[in-house]
Write a structure and sequence with these properties.
The complex is a heterodimer. Chain A is of the alpha/beta class. Chain A contains 14 helices and 12 strands. Chain B has one domain: TIM Barrel, CATH 3.20.20. Classes of the chains: A alpha/beta, B alpha/beta. At the A-B interface, strand 3, strand 4 and strand 7 of A face helix 1, strand 2, strand 3 and helix 11 of B.
Amino acid sequence: MSEVRLLEPMEVGSLRIPTWVQSLYGKSPFTQQKTDRALQEIEIWRQGTGLLNGTEKLIELMKQPEENGWKRETLIESLRLPIAFFKAAGLRVFAPSGEWRLVSGDMYKYEIHQVDGIDLCGEYTRAFDNRIWEPGIIKGKIGLKTLFPNDEVDIARRYMAPGDMIKFAFSGPLTQVFWSLNEHYNDFREAVLDYAEHVIRPNIIDLIKRGVDIIQIDEPQVHQLGAKLCAEAFNVATKGLDATFYIHMCFGDYKNEIFPDIMEAKKCDLFSLELSNGDTWDVAGDRHGYEFLRHFGEYNDGRKIGVGLFDIHNPRIESIELQRARLETAIKFLKDPQYVQPWPDCGGRQLDPFKSYLPKLKNMVEAANQVRQQYESG
Amino acid sequence: MTKAIAYVSGIYPYSRKHSLAARRFGRELITKEDLLKTKTEDSQLFIARQKDLGLDFISDGQFLWMDYARPFTLSNKKIEEEILEMVRKSDTNTFIRMPKIENLDDLMNTRLTDFMLPVETENRSIKVYGPYTFANYSTTNGFSLEDIMNSYSKALAQELETITRNNNVRFMEIAEPLLTENVPGNDTMEQEKTCIAQITKNLDIETNLSAPFNSMEPIWEKLLDFPVKGLTVDMRARDFFNVIPEPENIVDNHRFLFDHDIQKTLVLGCVNGRNGGFIPGKGLETPEWIAAVAGMIANKNNLGSIGITFSTDEVIVPRAIADKKLENIAKAKSMLGRLL
C-alpha cells in the first residue's frame, strides 16, 4: 500500500472540463462539427499531457459517434486524460477525474444529481467577475436518490500507475446546503445533518469499499457559518469509519472564525487552506499570507495543513522560487515539515488547464521536491 | 398620506443566455465585444421588464460591474484585474476583488460612464459602495482608512455629477455592508457622515444608504441624521436560509424602526435577495406577504414615503427567481398603495 511522503504535493480536486466532454453529457446528437472540435481538443490534451500512446481507442470512438452507450464508453475512455494531466504535473496523489466525471456538473451540481429533496433550478447565479454556477432548490427532506457514480474510482485505478493514490473529494454538507435555495427546512442544522448522514456517509462507505486512499470533504462555506456545525456534520458522516480524511476550506478568517472549533472534526488528518490568495507576489516578501500558521501551532494536536501555495483565481503563474519561499515559511511557522503538505489554494477549474494550471502545479511539485531534498539529505 | 415606491438597484442576475455567454467568454470561446452585445441585450430586456412593472427607478442591471468597487479599482491603470485578492461578500457565495490603492490621486481617474451600458432609459438608478466599505476592502501600503474614504468620496462625487448629467441617473443607493459587519467607532462614523455629505451635496437626485447582511439596529439612530434622502433596511439580514417568516414576526424583529421619528424614505429590503425559490409562501414572497409587512411598518410610523426592494445589495438568486420576486414587489406596491 502506498504512503503519503514527506511534503507530498497534492491538488484539491477540480480541473476544467473541455467542451467536447460537456457535449458527451448532453442529450443532443454528436454532430460532425462536435467531432472535429473534439479531435482537435483531444490532440491538445495529448500534447499537453504527453499521453501520446493510449488514446487510440478514444480517438477511434470519437470518429464514429453512435447511439446506444457510445457516449458513456467514450467518457470512460476519456478519463485517461485528467489522470495523465495530474501525472504530467508530477503528482502521485490526485482526484480520479478532477470533476471530469461520469455525470455532468461542478462540485456542487455533480452531487445534487443524486440527491433527493434538492432540484437544480436550471438557472445560473454569479460567483465573481463573469463566473457563474447553477444552484438547486431544497423542496423536501434531503436524502440519497442513488449512490454517486463512484465507479469512476475503479476506472481511474485502471489508468493509474503503481504507487499513485486516489484522493476523492466531496462537496461537504454545510456547503451543499448553503449553496442551495431553501423552500423546506426551518433549521439550517437539521438540513446540514440530513445531508451528512443520508448523502455523504453512504458514499464514504462505498468509497472505502472501493479502496480509495484519502477522502476529502470540501467546505468552502465554513467561513461565517460555523466551524462547530461543520465539525459536527463531518463527525456524523465519518462516525465509526476507518479511512484517511481531509477537510478543504477556502476563503475564511481561519484564526477568528474557523480554528480551533474545526479541530472537533477528530478524524480529520489534514486541513487544506487557501493562503496564497492573501500573500505578496514578491519572492522576498514578508509572507503575511501565511501568518495564520503561526497560530495553528498553538493548538495543533499532530494534524497537518495542506498549505495553499498558488492562487486559482489568477492565471499568472507563481514561480518555483515564490512557491518554495511560501512552503519554507509554512514549515518555519508550523515548526516541522511533517505538518506541511504543498497544495494549491483551491481546485483548478477556474484556470486554463495548459496555459496556467499545469505550469502552476509543475512549479509547486518542483518547489516541494527541492525542499524535501533538503530534509532527506539531512 | 404615505407614498409607496418599488425598485431594484445594483447588480442583477444574468439571464440564462447572458450567463452562458459569460461562461464562454471565460473560456475564450467568444470575444469581449460578443459578450458586451449580450450584456446590452439583456439590459434592454431587463429595463423593459422594469418599465412594464411600473417600478420607480430603472436599473441597467449594472452588468458591466463585476463588483461595486471595480470601476474605482481599475482607476489604477497598472493593476492587473485578475491578480487582485478576492474576498467573500459576507456569508454569500459571491466575491469581490479588493481594490489595491497605490496612489490616492488615481481614484480621480475613475470613469463611471465606462460602466454604464449603452441603453436609454429615464429615472436610471445606480448602486455604489460607500466610502467606509470601499476603504475597508482596500489593500494599501500606508494610507489610512480616513485618507481612502476622503479620496474615494471626492472621486465618487465628481463622477456622480457626470452620470446624473449624461446618463439620466436619478437615484443612487450607497451600499455600506461593512458598516454593520464591522461597526465603526464614533470618530469614523462622523467621518463617514462627512464623506456622505461630500458625495450628496451637489446632487439633485434621490439618494439612499443601505447596510445589508447584518442588522442595522446598532447604527440606526446615527444613520437617521445622515445626509441622504432615504435608508434601505435589510430585513432578512441573517435570514440566509429559513423559509419565509410570518409578517408579524419579521416586523417584530425590527422594532427598532419604531423607536425614532423617520424623516426619510424608509425602504424595506424584505424580499430575500440571496435565498428562496418558486413556491409562494415557502421560498417566494407573495405580493400579499410583502404588502402586509410594509403595511404594518407604515402604519406604525408616520412616514412620508415607504419603499420595497430586495434585501441584499446585489440580487444573487438566479434570474428566473429574481424576476418572479421583482414581479411580486411591483404587485405589492400596487396593493400597498391601496392599503395606505
